[in-house]
Amino acid sequence: MLMNGVWQEKWQPVQAKDEQGRFIRQDSSFRHWITPDGAPGPTGSGGFKAEPGRYHLYIGYICPWASRTLMVRQLKGLQDIIGVTVVNPRLTDQGWQFGGFPGADEDSLTGARYLHELYTRADPQVSGRATVPVLWDKQTGTIVNNESADIVRMFNDAFSYLVDQGPDLYPQVLATEIDALNQAIYTDLNNGVYQAGFASSQQAYEEAYTRVFAKLDELESRLSDGRRYLFGETLTETDIRLFVTLIRFDVAYHGLFKCNRNTLRSMTALHDYLHRILALEGIANTVQLDHIKAGYYSIEALNPSGIVPAGPDAI
Ligand SMILES: N[C@@H](CCC(=O)N[C@@H](CS)C(=O)NCC(=O)O)C(=O)O
Q1: Which of 2, 6, 12, 23 is nearest to 197 (CA)?
Q2: Is 170 labeled as catalytic in the residue annotation?
Q3: ipTM of the prediction
Q4: Does 96 appear as a known binding residue?
Q5: pLDDT in tens, 300-314
Q6: I need a surface site. Which of 207, 246, 288, 302 has the fewest CB within 10 A?
Q7: Quick one: CATH architecture of 172-280?
């Protein structure tokens, strides 16, 4: 991580935990918004007008948070106006690295070797972890935003006057319900699996494990009435947020994070739902299982041997 702009070599997956050994996630540090006219958004400062070719997205296929943004870029047809660079899925002592793995890119935009170089370019005194996703502004050479939830919202509407494509993933009529379900899915699943995997006490692990499977059971039953998506026929950002955790479940969370009551594949309604979203145009290309496996199983604190499991054969 970075301390006052200086990279600290000893990377630890758990930087903060509470007195019961529960993993605590850090807040994102860049929170500006791209808007149609460059006016300030809900947080941060203005000056980031939606313009074709001006912004660039740094992601890792391993990362569920980054993958949300990649999916929304795809669903909203922004591929031609927002470029993408993919980091190596194996975290190094220097954090995320460019190149060196099939399907990982060099950073042809800034020439950086590691992602943290972008953070210090954006703010020479920055402290915190150098996480993906990063939404980069080529015009001013800075980070617009590194919070996937914000980037998803921006991609949903900021560029609509340039590219009017794809569903509205945050329709106003559903906003309150979306916010509530997002929060529940974040707590129990998106972050819940990490709390199980990175727990440093039996109690913290069991608490998280119980919440993960209680939420999966609840969603399995919600989807069992034959609805296409969580809110019916309309695909929303909540589906994207759930999908990124479900797609990683059997290949990473079931084994590495000890979320092993059952596989996702054995939950029929959720499994069908997962494949329904995977079949949406362009979405399969946003999922690279080899990156997901290699990345998670390279977390030394959880898997010192570095051995990557051969299975499962199918998701
Ligand atoms: N709040 C961030 C979290 C992103 C995040 O935690 N990314 C992880 C990868 S899945 C990361 O880059 N970790 C590197 C590190 O913590 O040093 C978001 O949702 O955008």
Answers
A1: 23
A2: no
A3: 0.98
A4: yes
A5: 999 999 999 999 989
A6: 302
A7: Up-down Bundle (1.20)
